[in-house]
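Hello forum,

I keep getting stuck at the same step: I have a sequence, I want structure tokens, and every attempt I make locally crashes halfway through. Rather than fight my setup again tonight, could one of you with a working pipeline run this one for me? It's a single chain of 304 residues.
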Amino acid sequence: MDAYEDFERYSRVVTYDEQDHEKWIFHEEDRLICSVCIFREPQDGSRYFANLSEDGEVQIMTENFLEEKILGAGVNVEDSVGWGYLSDIQQIGDHLYACGYSGQVYKRCGPNDWVHMDSGLLQDPKTPMEDTIALSVINGPHENAIYAAGYQHAEWLPPKAYFFNGSQWRELELPTVAERIVNMHVESESRIWMCGSNGTLLLGNAQDGFKSLSTVDDNQLFTSVCKFQDKICLASNMGLFAYDPANSDAGIRRVITGLQPELQDANIVDCYDKVLWSIGPKDIARFDGNKWERIQDPDNLPIR
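Reply #2:
Ran it on my machine without issues. Output:
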């Protein structure tokens, strides 16, 4: 991957299955994949991975690999309208949703059937750059409570967040200390976590509002957030961090894994089947609640 430029239209989709004799399986795509999620078919509960490119190309990794296109989205495609790139795909309720620049929000109603869900949000393609809204993340506890958040392309990238109640969107008021929102974790309908630039960590909901949990000493770029056991874990450009709601006075603290060397990078943090995963550009590790283990990516040099 180091042979490619940062914005080269190339992605490698990798799956790791410890129970398989071939633990690592990958396929390559000539597009920039910006987001991956799990999609469960509501009819039979089948579980697949879905990925989204910046240009609105969607791939659902069934046995036959469904290839779909969100019409109008993207930049480097013939059907582009000019709204800009997409950034995130998530399953909310029974459906997949995607969001991106200029307030774009889409809902997948069926195979290759993506419709706008952004009335009141979608901006004219000719909107001045400094007024353009970029939605970085979309999620929610159900389809009548959807959150979309990101930033405005003005000076210092002020944060923006919106809430959909099943019929319309409205903008949410955020703490004045908050900065650009990058990611989100839905703990429950009343506990929505948002993270982002300069140590931004928010907790709240559309009804009660959001409060900031970071301090002036926090200056990390938090790129991912999840709950593991009773703590909130955060991936960042400065490593892995954690916040304990039961000990809020301790603040946001670096996670010491005991690995040799310590975690080199952390871009995504997630919890699945009671195991915490930290995934970075070069370094992958997991924590089962007792010990940390580094997972060596065969495409990368060993971390020593």
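The radius of gyration is 19 Å. If your local run keeps crashing, start a new thread with the error log.
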